[in-house]
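Next up, sample data:
>
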Amino acid sequence: MHTKDHYEMREYNLDLIEDDQDSSVCAEGRPYSIYPSKGGLNSNFLRDIISRTLHSLPVNIDPIPKDIIEDFGLLSLHDAYMGIHKPKELKEADLARKRLIFDEFFYLQLGRLFQILEGLDTKIEKDGLLDKYRKPELNTAFVEEWSSLTMNFLKALPYSLTSSQLSAASEIIWDLKQPVPMNRLLQGWEEKDPLNESGFGFAALGDVGCGKTVVAFLACMEVIGSGYQAAFMVPTELLALQHYDQLTKLLDKMKGVECKPSISLLTGSTPSKQSRVIREGLQNGDISLVIGTHSLIAEKVEFSALRIAVVDEQHRFGVIQRGRFNSK
């Protein structure tokens, strides 16, 4: 460790290479795994145990089907264990880490899928859900089943959506119509709680300009078209104002809609009198969509029928803050 004017070595290990034929993990030019000493177990002991375990590890231990491994260009589980503990080069260690990270997300998604299936009553519902995952291209076919409000909003856009945006919007709207909660990660979108008593929400993740906002607006229009309310929370007042102005302009361009959704802007700078009017509109259902900052999760703010809550740049909000929408 580095001190004021010199370095100090608090813990070290010496491994001797007896000859050029030594194939140990510490051979010259190869990455060297370091195991921190914990709970009275020193790193040499841990290294010895792990080395013995790897030596007796069977090759065919991979529970994930081979076609999935090949589709994602992953190492086998055996090679991943060897690569993370005894890599021949740094690239091998990186590929091993990629495989182990994939496994964590794979089993998380698989476990969640089983939970959703248990919540479905009929075989038709279960087959429909499984087909959605087996054939993701079917999700784009649901565009024709969007509400008239959502379709008119889509037509009002001054540009055409990319296939990725349409696919993301289709999957979210498909989830909105399901009777069971959904929680998954999709191309920068994290979704929670579909259109049921607990509502539906998702956090917007991803780089600026990647099309998150318009996809969120489409999901909001689908909910509003079904007679419910939507909330859009952002971390700053400037961003809230930008989203409000953008949505207002798009709604003004909509044609063929007799009654356009009513939207409001609620931030910490909103005058007290106007805030009270907005809160009353949300409570009695006159306001369909509200865009704002953390003011949306204040105790005074109540909704008549909130069914979707979008949290933009969700990493800038705490878990408890985001969870407060569940009580709205």
Remarks:
- Residues 19-25, 183-199, 203-210 have pLDDT under 50 and may be disordered.
